[in-house]
Amino acid sequence: MSTRGRLLFTTSLALLVCLCLIARTLAAVAAQPSQPATQTILPEPATSQPIAATAPAPIAPAATTAPATQPDDDFAPGLAIFALIVLLVLLFFALIALILAAIVGIALLILLLIGILSLSVLFGVLKRSVSAAAKALTIQLLALCGIPVGIALIWVLSHLLHRPIPAVATIFLGILCGAGSGAAVGYLLTKALSLLTAAIAKRLTSKTKPVTAHFPVSPQVVDVSPLPPGEHPAN
After folding, report:
1. 10 Å Cβ neighbour count for 39?
2. CB 3.0-4.6 Å disulfide test: which of 73, 101, 135, 150 passes with 174?
3. Is the overall model pTM greater than 0.90, yes or no?
4. Predicted confidence (pLDDT) per residue in 175-220, tens digit
5. How many Å is the maximal CA-CA distance in the chain?
6. Angle separating helix axes 130-160 and 167-207, nearest 10 degrees
């Protein structure tokens, strides 16, 4: 290699080393945290006047700013109004259904009571007795009142014994047991009332029995001797 080539190689190597050192220095400076600039305080000239003591200035509290509320993008007034309208419509139809169910239930109860009353009147006409009609009416009314009581008792017993019964079976058994028990109670009640009324009537008649006076009757002598011929009995 000539002298000129050696000089160029040495110069290039020196430049490369300088560039590496400069890059390393810049990287180190960038990695260090930035420090605030310090102010140089010049000493005040000494004076013969006394320095008055100054109270430290009060530190004002830092102003707290409320966090900005972001608008709720999910709220849609149209959907809320639509849901409210649907709810009002459902409530309206539920109220209509309840009113219709109440009307149908009242109509069925009236028809049932009319049937019971008619049957009682017919029974009284056939027996030709008002008491028989009253007895039939009492038995039928107690049988009707015993149906809901029987259903409720069957349901309570099935839950107390931990043996659940289907709803249809509960209603069927409740109707049978309630109606039968009500009819039996009505029959016993009418029998007790009839016996009680008979005893009261007998006691009242025994107290108001008329008193008859018994007077002695004198015996009469009848002449049965034969009459002589030609004479007629005197009238």
Report:
1. 6
2. 150
3. no
4. 999 999 999 998 999 889 888 888 888 888 877 655 555 555 555 5
5. 226
6. 140
